[in-house]
Amino acid sequence: MLNSSSLLLLLSNNLFLQSALALSLSLFLHFIKIPSLLLSALFTYVHPDDVAPSNASSNGVRAAIRRPGVNDSELKPRRKSKERFEFDENKAQIFRLKLSDGHLQTRIYFVDFRSAFNSVFVSLSCLLLHCFLKKSEDSGVVKNGSFVPILLGVLGVGRIFVLFVKISFERSASKLADKQLSVVLGFLGFVVAVVLVHGVVGKGIFDVCFDAVHGFEKLFIAIFMGCISCFLYMPAVRITHAFWLGTDQLRCNLPIVSCGWFARLLLHANYLFMVFTSMLWVKPFADLLLIDQNVRTEHVRELVGNVGMQKSEFSNFRLWCLLVSGLLQILSLRSNVQMYLNEAVFCWYQRLHASKVPDLGYSRAKVFLHNHFVCLAVLQFFLPASMVLLFLGLSQVGDNLLTNCQGICSLFPCSLLDKEVTLFMAWLVLFVWMIYTSVTLALFRQGILYVS
Question: Where would one find the signal peptide in this protein (predicted)?
């Protein structure tokens, strides 16, 4: 039997604490369905079917009534009255329902969202615990307890990639033109990444360093950048639609479409903070915030003088900004999902008032698809923020934890888990997300794109 000192040593072991936390959280999330609570009480909409056919007798031939003794030649031609189209008001009805756990269980991709949320939550919890535990990098990955957060973090990123591939090939969720454009953008992202990782261009533009990676690792990073450029296009367009409707940029003043002041504040804060955080890795902008005179150019010194932060303070500041940006995206998840559902109502409202005899077939299909693919939209809003947080957590695990393990490094390129590389990947996801969102917002502002 274990004595008190052995039991105390076991309980203070980092590996034991990490394993206990992972197992207990997995068991807790199995019974407490946080994903269902996160989406519960959101309003979804159902368009009724057109079950009342038009009256056939109203357009039929009517018998003419003649006076007795009047010949057909004496009959004066009568003007044919214009055909009256009577719109059935039952076709204009739309029903609003509150999402519950029973409704969510029937939606496609809800199981994927629940498993992704649980795995990301457990991984981030273990990464957070690792930051507060006493550890020694010389003791190795297993004894140090870092093996559990590293393994869960890598598996979480892998699960996110699999889900991105899965939802990108969903046929009815997006237009074929959008899918083709996302593939083109992915190829362009790969080409730009190859140029960037080899240091041909970008040294004076972006504050990134690839000295720790060589050969195959650089190719892997380029492929990753191409995949991110491909996968993030359609989610970015969707979140731009949600921002456009939620902040009432159309000035339609429809309470059923726009959101409240707090949700609107979250949407604005999420976008503005995402733009600010992405610019922290752009050297001309970062030089304005640094007090290091060796970094500043002459015009920067004249503009801001000695106002700014030291290099170490600036590095920590960027980490906190990445963390806050990822958390803001998670906090605005409900608002974005509600705006995604309200987009179908806005389409129905447009079709209803477009003409005297509205054709609601398109809006009926729109309402159905938004209701059917609501959990796919949830994944598109949730996965990019989760990837940012996971890469940020992996960047804080340690620099030399895996490089000393030759057995692991022979199977896995450990240099990809270098602090600078994982931090670059976290920033890259946010940067590509920001570029797509900003360009789409500009196209909305110019009237080239519109919500319909």
Answer: 1-22
pTM here is: 0.84
Q: Which amino acid is at 35?
A: P
pLDDT digits (tens, 9 = 90+) for 19-67: 889 999 999 998 888 999 999 889 988 877 654 444 444 444 343 334 4
| Domains in the chain: boundaries | 101-445
Q: Could you read off the pLDDT of 255-304 as tens digits, one per residue?
A: 777 788 898 999 999 999 999 999 999 888 887 787 765 555 555 555 55
Burial class (CB in 10 A: 0-12, 13-18, 19+), 404: middle
Angstrom distance (rounded) from CA 282 to CA 275: 11
Neighbours of 182 (CB within 10 A): 21
Question: Which contacts qualify for 358-366: CB closer than 8 Å, 24 or more apart?
Answer: 358/87, 358/91, 358/92, 360/47, 360/50, 360/91, 360/92, 363/47, 364/47, 364/49, 364/50
SS3 97: strand
Which sign does the torsion angle of CA 443, 449, 450, 452 carry? Answer: negative
3-state secondary structure 178-235: HHHHHHHHHHHHHHHHHHHHCCCCCCCCECCCCCCCCCHHHHHHHHHHHHHHHHCHHH
140: left (phi over 0), alpha (psi -120 to 50) or beta: left
Instruction: Give 361: exposed, middle or buried? Use CB within 10 Å, 0-12, 13-18, 19+.
Output: exposed
Q: How long is the chain?
A: 452
